[in-house]
Design brief:
This is Lipoprotein. It is built from 10 helices and 14 strands. By secondary structure, it is an alpha/beta fold. The strands form 3 sheets. The protein has a 6-stranded mixed β-sheet with strand order 1-2-3-4-6-9. A 5-stranded antiparallel β-sheet has the order 10-11-12-13-14. Strands 5-7-8 form a 3-stranded mixed β-sheet.
Length: about 350
């Protein structure tokens, strides 16, 4: 891991900096401006006492500021059981992005995080640095700066929950003068973030992507699902056609399951599909799941993957014609996007 320097000063010149302003509008706490020393205490004293329900959210628009105060502000937000948000067209950069990680669910769900961004939001991380060009200002002159900043940030990330420490460390090796924006499904998932707002249009190749992601989950991170996934085919013309195709994939005619094939062929098509999937599929008769051919190899025995998606969930069913198994899973809409392809 690269070492990186610790910011103890503001990202903006002192003459341009202004302390963060907290403005409460309904259940939205608008937090704008630069993060300066004392902001966390002001939030705890004046804002936190007004948070008394599950929908209170800190909506950020900030260029950054003091790293340590950003962590303290994140801790104050976490302790107040408030969510965090960056809206479309707004920015939360540098130390603000650290504070953003403090978002937490309220009450019964308080063991869960609540961090949200809208498509087009600018949530950015980079390496931290001193505003002085001639020297690095240390929190504690006795401790090595690199070990100190890593320990502080990783401990903070652990306490905030739901954060991939390896991803955060990688983001923070970005050159101090640059900024790594969070805009891919992998980054969003790695920081425990939920994408909210208007749904993104699905990519043209979403069935193949969803099936590749499903197969990747089955075979593990150290294998490559790419060669196992073919191309998407057109959706079945009807539930009856879907039943026939899935029968052939899960119980091939030459596979010795003639009695089972006959029984499933005699059921209502939707019921037969549900039984073969192992879960209720709720397939739309006018838009049945799309079939993606799979290739066997490396111990993977899948014949085909069936994918369908709507604004709230992506469903995949990986069918194995050797062991006559079906792996059913439902995921959030980002499962239909390439994990490493920017969304905006």
């Amino acid at each position: 891991m690269k070492s990186f320097l610790l910011v103890l000063v503001l990202c903006l010149p002192p003459t341009l900096a202004r302390a963060m302003d907290f403005r409460i509008e309904g259940e939205t706490i608008h937090a704008s401006g630069t993060i300066e020393k004392g902001d966390a205490d002001r939030f705890a004293a004046t804002v936190a006492p007004r948070i008394d329900g599950p929908l209170f959210t800190v909506s950020f628009d900030s260029p950054g500021g003091s790293l340590l105060e950003g962590m303290r502000l994140g801790e104050a937000i976490h302790a107040a059981f408030a969510g965090t948000l960056v809206e479309r067209g707004r920015s939360c950069l540098s130390a603000c992005a650290i504070a953003f990680l403090g978002g937490k669910a309220f009450g019964t769900y308080a063991h869960q995080v609540r961090r949200e961004i809208e498509p087009g939001a600018r949530l950015g991380y980079h390496g931290f640095f001193s505003g002085r060009e001639d020297q690095v200002e240390l929190v504690n002159e006795v401790l090595d700066q690199s070990r100190l900043v890593n320990a502080l940030l990783l401990d903070y990330a652990t306490r905030m929950r739901g954060i991939d420490g390896g991803l955060l460390s990688e983001l923070l090796t970005t050159a101090p003068a640059a900024m790594e924006m969070i805009d891919t499904p992998a980054e969003i998932a790695g920081l425990g973030i939920t994408l909210v707002g208007d749904p993104l249009p699905l990519p043209e190749d979403w069935p193949a992507i969803a099936c590749r992601n499903a197969v990747q989950r089955m075979i593990g991170a150290f294998a490559d699902a790419g060669p196992l996934v073919g191309t998407a085919e057109n959706a079945a013309a009807s539930l009856e056609a879907l039943r026939r195709t899935m029968l052939d994939d899960k119980y091939p005619a030459e596979g010795g399951a003639g009695d089972l094939r006959a029984a499933l062929a005699g059921l209502d098509p939707a019921d037969a599909v549900d039984l073969m999937a192992g879960e209720p599929v709720y397939a739309d008769p006018d838009d049945p799941p799309r079939r993606v051919a799979l290739n066997r190899g490396g111990g993977f025995l899948g014949n085909a993957c069936y994918a369908m998606a709507d604004a709230s969930v992506v469903t995949t069913i990986v069918v194995d014609g050797i062991d006559h198994k079906a792996t059913f899973r439902q995921d959030d809409p980002l499962f239909a996007f390439d994990p490493h392809r920017p969304l905006w």
